Amino acid sequence: MKKPSIVFFDIDGTLYTKEMTLPPSAKKAIQDLKENGVYVAIATGRAPFMFESLRQELGIETFVSFNGSYVVAEGEVVDKKPLKSEDVGHLHVEAGTREHGMVFMDHEQAAADSEENEDISRGMNDLKLPYPPMNRNFYKDHEIYQALLFCGPDAEEKYRDTFDTFRFVRWHQLAVDVVPVGGSKAEGIQAAAAHLGFSMDETAAFGDALNDVEMLKETGIGIAMGNALEEVKQAADFVTSPVYEDGVKQGLERIGLL
């Protein structure tokens, strides 16, 4: 097993616990990793404005956000794949007929399509984020890198059958991420790594959710958290302990980086 030169970390369920806190052991492990000369980056489904404080706390300037649709390397945007406004509009109309709420996001802000939606409120609350301001036409005037569609699993299948330009990735029992077809954290990692001069064989990634499957398969070493979904564990090279049981630290020790 080749030692990685750059490690990408998911946020929710990997760096963050359910309470959206960064365990002290994970913070120290990342600090030690950087001191050992290993490059540290983030790969998340979140928008950049949703984890700015975490980047500052950890001193990270390279990240894959929106599940691969917006990639920044050392502060420079190196790849971006906005959703087509017309396609988002068609999806929004369909969601409206089914009474499913949506949130639209560019790299700086988010907007909801209604002032009060119980599912949106619950989903954002679980992320410890405020309810976005309402702007039903936000997608018409901004580059949208990801939308959130608030619907259950049964409805998700119907959307998937109807909209072939989107990929729907569930992150909550009430919601899915809407990203471009073919888009993934793995693609974003490839873009960031190439820009920085790393091969995919030199990369490692930690994750726990369905949007992490591709990156765990395609990076040099894929590590699933002990709290990960079973499908995610199956995609990884090995499973470390849960985030709340020093999973990041133990995973880094196992691959010889600490």
Automatic annotation (TrEMBL):
CDD domains: HAD_HPP
GO molecular function: magnesium ion binding; phosphatase activity
Top-level division of the source organism's lineage: Bacteria
Cellular component per GO, a single term: cytosol
InterPro entries given in the database record: Cof (IPR000150), HAD-like_sf (IPR036412), HAD-SF_hydro_IIB (IPR006379), HAD_sf (IPR023214)
PROSITE patterns associated with the record: COF_1 (PS01228)
Record-given protein name: Cof subfamily of IIB subfamily of haloacid dehalogenase superfamily/HAD-superfamily hydrolase, subfamily IIB
Species annotation: Salibacterium halotolerans
